[in-house]
């Protein structure tokens, strides 16, 4: 094993968004008192203990990427986040031009804080824009002012961030195609290096799910969702951001190398409560609640909740499910003749790139990306 990426989970938010079912907690949910800043110190202490465990298991690796997600990592003081980066650099070889990413809420940073974040080692930042349309943000329970997006993108440029990404959500109840066009256009007008656009998934148990169940809100139909996806793809390509994964577009050289490691099923270690890891065909995940996670580590115990060894069939199926999402596609030599025969009809229907097929690769066309799951079901037995 030569490379090991790190994901660092920061499980804190000031407010839970109506659509969110992530493993994140507000101060009132934790009942620990004080602000998130006051609880961050001992949380980072616990993460540093898990880093010690990781070093015992994988001492001789190079770290190509580090990604801080959440939750809202940008709520924590930069000096505390920097302690994690420093510990990883101290124990392992950090690759030249390693990608170090922070997810950020636009309202949680300003020019001064962005400069601090850059100083402690972050060189890539991803802002949760979600939408530029106030009524859409309101449905999503997003608290940030859409006008802050331009300010923080400019601030990140000024602080020296090498790559800036924006995240959008489409398919919010009440969102029209023109609403989404306005959001994509606003994002691209800022000259960002990377754009992600994710279809809204309504998760059971969320506030949004309850509103839909009561009939207060209605989800858009499949045709509108498809039009939204094709629109963002078209506008990104016209602006010089190329599709490289189902929900991601980037300028050349600005693809998320950390996420590519996931899609290639490379090795990564997830630090923090509920974080998942994968090394050499073994997958495991940590206990979910931050208090249980901290208590285990401060008692010199492992925070591991459960693990599994992937079977050859699982590895084969996951390779198909992940590879088909990417622009590189799947080499036909990795598919049996039977699998190729099953999906050949999608070449005729325009869902698979015919020229790429002739060159030996299964690659989805834009319309094919809309039915990627259906094609996967044909390939995975």
What report would you give on this structure?
The protein has 2 domains: 5-263, Aldolase class I (TIM Barrel); 313-320 and 328-379, no CATH class. Helix 2 (36-57) packs parallel to helix 3 and helix 7 runs parallel beside helix 9. It is built from 16 helices and 14 strands. The chain has 381 residues and is an alpha/beta fold.
Provide the descriptors you would attach to this structure in a database record.
381 residues, alpha/beta, TIM Barrel, 2 domains, nine-stranded mixed beta sheet, 16 helices
Concise account of the structure shown:
43% of the residues lie in helices and 20% in strands.
Query: Can you tell me the CATH superfamily of the largest domain?
Result: Aldolase class I
Indicate the CATH topology of the largest domain: TIM Barrel
Bin the strand percentage.
Answer: 15-25%
Question: Overall pLDDT, averaged?
Answer: 93
Tell me the structural class. Answer: alpha/beta
Number of strands: 14
Write the CATH architecture name of the largest domain. Answer: Alpha-Beta Barrel
Radius of gyration: 21 Å
Number of domains: 2
**Helix residue percentage:** 40-55%
Largest sheet: 9 strands, mixed
Shape: globular
Name of the CATH first level of the largest domain: Alpha Beta
The number of distinct helices, counting runs of at least 4 residues, comes to 16
Q: How are the strands ordered across the major sheet?
A: 7-8-6-5-4-3-2-1-9
- Low-confidence sequence ranges: none
SSE string, helix = H, strand = E?
Answer: EHHEHEHEHHEHEHHEEHEEEHEHEHHEHH
Report the span from N to C terminus.
30 Å
